[in-house]
Write a structure and sequence with these properties.
177 residues; mainly alpha; 7 helices
């Protein structure tokens, strides 16, 4: 049960990015290997954003949120890689994962120019948007596209977890106003 729960968290957290739907091939539904690559790419992006926030954030709640995200995403990366290995899926690069990487790089550069309260607000606002997009991508694209029953089940469980992350980000954002 504990391993299944961790794998569900891994699948969910790694699928996070505000550009999942924007970068996806509209006419083509992603395959399990493409979903795996999107998940891995998004996980690396999440870790980088949390590390940036750990260095730049000044508000204690923002710092704590970034620490939670870093801890969760690092743990999830390990679990997701184990799941991919178990399912014998080789992640496949695709337009969505390439778009995720480019847009994340641009966002990190944009946030890097900010400091203090301006950084804190921009980071948390991005996290709120990020989690809204992830939830939408899970519901409308990734879960329906997954063909492996175990992967699909983990993504469904992950959606519930990510909805909790969104609420946490929204709470932190409301406190900053």
């Amino acid at each position: 049960m504990f391993t299944r729960w961790n794998a569900a968290i891994a699948a969910a957290v790694l699928l996070s990015s505000p550009v999942l739907l924007q970068g996806a091939e509209a006419a083509d539904k992603p395959t399990d290997p493409q979903i795996a690559h999107i998940a891995y790419t998004a996980g690396v992006i999440d870790i980088n954003a949390a590390r940036q926030a750990q260095k730049k954030a000044r508000n204690k709640d923002v710092k704590a949120f970034a620490e939670d995200m870093l801890r969760d995403h690092e743990a999830v990366n390990k679990q997701a890689l184990a799941l991919v290995k178990k399912l014998n899926v080789t992640p496949e690069d695709n337009d969505t994962s390439k778009s995720l990487s480019k847009q994340a790089s641009d966002k990190l550069a944009e946030l890097d120019k900010l400091s203090g309260a301006a950084f804190d607000k921009a980071y948390v606002a991005n996290e709120v948007a990020y989690h809204k997009a992830v939830n939408a991508a899970l519901e409308t694209q990734l879960i329906p596209s997954a063909t492996n029953a175990e992967l699909k089940g983990l993504l469904q469980t992950g959606l519930k977890i990510f909805q909790g992350h969104q609420q946490h980000a929204e709470h932190v954002a409301a406190e900053l106003k």
